[in-house]
Design brief:
Layout: H1 15-46, H2 49-74, H3 80-103
Helix pairs in contact: 1-2, 2-3
Length: about 100
Amino acid sequence: MTGDVALQTTVGGSRTVALLALAGLLVAAVLSLAVVYRLVEGYRRNGTRPMLALGVGLALLVTGPIFLRLAFANVVDVSPATRSVTTTASELLGLAAILYAIYDP
């Protein structure tokens, strides 16, 4: 051998771990959507803007990044940097909306 290096051709872990991770993401997305739905119902019933801001913030903080990661990994071909910036921006906007809900005068 003259310095040949065997390249690893396997990516990721076992199929079971991948399926459990995907199931966990989907459960988290469904649960966050359920909470957002309840918050929007509360907004419609009471008309308080902080309730709506809390729902939007939660959607941007939890649900948005989950769907963005899944879409970018499976549907759209984007760079890891673009994926990271987009999901981080969604999380930051979500946190800002939640802070607005908390500190709304």
